[in-house]
Amino acid sequence: MHGTDPAVMKKAIRTYGVIGGLLLLFTVITVAVNQVHLAVPLAITVALIIATIKGSMVASIFMHLSHEKKWIYGSLILTVLFFIVLILLPNLTVSDTIGKVSPYTAAAEHATEKAEK
Question: Do 43 and 31 form a contact (C-beta atoms < 8 A)?
């Protein structure tokens, strides 16, 4: 904290209380969503959204990142971009068809073999 002004202290304590209450609220929401038994992809998406919101609140207020310089935000954005790339990277391996026979090609070859007999 940058000062001992009672007004500044009171505002900081109120902010911590509000964020603590919101974290508790989002924890209750997490438990409630778990009771709904969503489909797995939707459940994972909702869980990640709630975790991102809670993590952002903790990082910005309790870790004091909301008062940091702009380059910190740049590094956070870069981290998020790399995270997205790493999450999407397995899709490249799934869609890779090099060395695999296409079902259409296999069906055409089978039809050709059948016609030759």
Answer: no
Q: Say if residues 30 and 50 touch (Cβ distance below 8 Å).
A: yes
| 106 pLDDT more than 70 | yes
Q: Which two tokens stand for residue 68?
A: 């940091």
pTM value is 0.55
Domain segments of the chain as ranges? 1-67, 69-117
Average pLDDT value for residue range 36-57: 91
Question: What SS3 class is residue 38?
Answer: coil
Q: For the chain, first and last CA: distance in Å?
A: 86
The residue behind tokens 């391996």 is 93
Which segments of the chain does DSSP mark as H helices, in order? 6-36, 40-57, 70-94, 103-116
Residues 35-61: what's their mean pLDDT?
90
